[in-house]
């Protein structure tokens, strides 16, 4: 909408690229989420998905059960957030500044705030779906701390501190994805638009679909 509203051919081309990129990589993202909900948790509730991963600490994370889905989700998330090497809508040497060419000041700042909020939300999704969410990564540590709090009569203090620990655990895991996205921005070169669309439609989509079918097959076999 911003590219079309600028009445500028460079902005319009940037908007078309952004739309094509978004559509191309949202489908593999949805297929990865379906693989998680279908086989591992049987629910789309984030609470249920995290609880399934809480039994044995980091050993029960979905990243070990769905390694292919994790890689596809990671690459698709970077593309959805328009981070290097997938920041073609903002390729300044090709399209000046993409769909935000005609904007400056607070409007330009709002575009960047939205981009980084998108990155933060994607990192939280990766944390919840594959890295155990707010549960501790050390096996049995929560049960151990809870038993100590009950034995020493500090159960109320533990109930107060537990949400703080959960938030800290979630944000610390999310920081890992943020670090990876910033690291790729400084290490990988930008791809061309045809390479970007080929990766989404010819590689990530078939791999994500095959992963979903494989997960569904294992689910049927386990039920039988």
From TrEMBL:
GO MF entries: NADH dehydrogenase activity
Predominant location: membrane
Transmembrane segments: 109-131, 164-183, 203-223
Matches recorded under InterPro entries: NADH_UbQ_OxRdtase_su1/FPO (IPR001694), NADH_UbQ_OxRdtase_su1_CS (IPR018086)
Keywords: Membrane, NAD, Transmembrane, Transmembrane helix
A GO CC term attached to the entry: plasma membrane
Top-level taxonomic group: Eukaryota
Entry-linked PROSITE patterns: COMPLEX1_ND1_2
Membrane topology listed for this record: Multi-pass membrane protein
Subcellular location: Cell membrane; Membrane
Annotated GO biological process: aerobic respiration
Family listed: Belongs to the complex I subunit 1 family.
Xref: PANTHER family: NADH DEHYDROGENASE SUBUNIT 1, NADH-UBIQUINONE OXIDOREDUCTASE CHAIN 1
Name of the molecule in the record: NADH-plastoquinone oxidoreductase subunit 1
Originating organism: Ceratopteris richardii
């Amino acid at each position: 909408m911003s590219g079309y509203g600028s009445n500028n051919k460079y902005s319009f081309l940037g908007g078309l690229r952004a739309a094509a990129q978004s559509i191309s990589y949202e489908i593999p993202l949805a297929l990865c989420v379906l693989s998680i909900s279908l086989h591992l948790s049987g629910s789309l509730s984030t609470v249920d998905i995290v609880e399934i991963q809480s039994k044995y600490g980091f050993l029960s994370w979905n990243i070990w059960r769905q390694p292919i889905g994790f890689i596809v989700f990671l690459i698709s998330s970077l593309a959805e957030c328009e981070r290097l090497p997938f920041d073609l809508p903002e390729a300044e040497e090709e399209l000046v500044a993409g769909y935000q060419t005609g904007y400056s000041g607070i409007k330009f700042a709002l575009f960047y705030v939205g981009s980084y909020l998108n990155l933060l939300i994607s990192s939280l999704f990766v944390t919840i779906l594959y890295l155990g969410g707010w549960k501790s990564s050390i096996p049995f540590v929560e049960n151990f701390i809870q038993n100590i709090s009950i034995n020493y009569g500090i159960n109320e203090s533990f109930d107060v501190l537990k949400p703080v620990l959960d938030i800290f655990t979630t944000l610390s895991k999310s920081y890992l994805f943020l670090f990876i996205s910033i690291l790729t921005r400084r290490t990988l070169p930008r791809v061309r638009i045809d390479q970007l669309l080929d990766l989404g439609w010819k590689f990530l989509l078939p791999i994500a679909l095959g992963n979903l079918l494989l997960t569904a097959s294992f689910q049927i076999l386990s039920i039988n």
